[in-house]
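Reopening: structure tokens for the magnesium ion complex, inputs below.
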Amino acid sequence: MAALSVLHGFVAGVGATVLGFCQAIGAVTLFALRGLLAIVTPPWYPRELLRQIMKIGYYSLPVVGLTAVATGGVLALQIYIGGSRFNAESVVASIVAIGMVRELGPVLGGLVVAGRVSAAIAAEIGTMRVTEQIDALTTLSTNPFKYLVAPRLLAGVLTMPILVAVADTIGIMGGWLVGANRLGFNPETYIRNTVDFLTFGDIASGLVKAAVFGFIITLMGCFHGYNSGRGAQGVGRATTNAVVSAMVLILAFDYLLTELFFST
Amino acid sequence: MSTPKIEMQDVHKRFGSNRVLRGVDLSVAPSESMVIIGGSGTGKSVTIKSVLGLVTPDKGSVLVDGKDVRKWKRETLLDKFGMLFQGGALFDSLKVWENVAFRALRSKSTEECRELAIEKLRRVGLKPETADQLPAELSGGMQKRVGLARAIATSPEIIFFDEPTTGLDPIMSDVINDLIRELVVELKCTAMTITHDMTSVRKIADRVAMLHDGVIQWTGPVGDMDASGNPYVEQFINGRADGPIEAVR
Ligand SMILES: Nc1ncnc2c1ncn2[C@@H]1O[C@H](COP(=O)(O)OP(=O)(O)OP(=O)(O)O)[C@@H](O)[C@H]1O
Ligand SMILES: [Mg+2]
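Re-run output (same inputs, fresh job):
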């Protein structure tokens, strides 16, 4: 009898979690669709878009650059170690390039930008919700989706590929620095190997990932901020949830997209 | 009798288990100044937010100019309104003048908007220098007055003031009371004001409504307020701790 009620409690708990999860997915999807609709219909706020491009893109350059140069260098060392076991040290240049461009540039770039931008957006929009600024926008006949959400989503999608392109370049340079100075590669051969082995497909798939991650990062910031609970506590929770969900989604979509590019 | 500017019919609203509005009926005539009084947390702010559609009532209807708010085109409806939020709700990423002229910025040039903002700031007793500051650099009372300037900036037909004089000194309160009165008498605005300040009530109200326990307990001309015979109103205007309104819960 007791076992039955424990089982019942367990099943009910699982059911509630699954239902809650489905509800959350529905809410996010609806939010994303409203955001996309706001991007394609007037009125547009170019000044807001520009501001967000600066905030999301330009000011993320330092952390993205730092992450990339370190990753590129480490990658060169590790691949050298791995490669030397098969007498294949010469693959360092091309594998650093492919690894950076296809995978690490977008994913690590996405993760650090998520930490910075999702949090900032969620905190800003959450505070606007809590201090009734979003209500004030509405009463001033301004649609918050067009004024707040659309510029951020668009800025994310536009700037992430550029950020990742910069990250790729800097990361490859990091690998080159380590390769030429520490591992004794000929600098020119290293560069030639990099350029010869990279394909257009490598670069394009990385940049497509970047655009998708840019959307995820800004969407999670906007969604959690917009639905923030009341008070400072509500904003704090929104910020945490935004960062965590953005990171999880980036990793999940990274696999999905890689699988997609793999089979085509 | 003409159609009321605003009419609320049997409006209900609950948040979770908290039944805030339990059948509010209220009607405000054109160019009339209605003041809502009532204890803290009784749902006065929720009442005006449900007129603006910021809060969706669970039951009942709200009519503006005789037409249900759900049938109005949202933009057209909101263009009629100005609103001062209880906490000011200024956009903290924008300068003071951009806040005040926010609505006008969509259609007018920057220069015109700045001038408009400075003129409205003057009306609420703020110097032109404040125009270029950020809201966070102002004192609480100054922020409230910027919010007020923003609410009246486009000369709307209907203006809601949520505690316009809270946090202001007595002289500035009087300036604001005069301003609200002037908007109603000279510009024929319809005003709905929430206040706890009985001096303000007597100065700005044409009619008074008392909200308690989720319903309007009493409504009538401000002149009848003192002899209302309503125990809730009497306790409230005399500020007594004992009476039908439980002060300690
Ligand atoms: N968005 C919301 N979510 C949950 N509860 C809410 C919300 N808005 C208001 N409430 C609750 O509704 C009740 C009435 O709130 P309201 O802000 O209307 O009070 P008020 O009459 O304006 O009080 P005060 O004079 O202190 O401003 C409060 O108990 C409040 O907790
Ligand atoms: Mg209130």
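DSSP finds nine helices and no strands in chain A. The mean pLDDT of chain A is 94. Marking as resolved unless the reporter disagrees.
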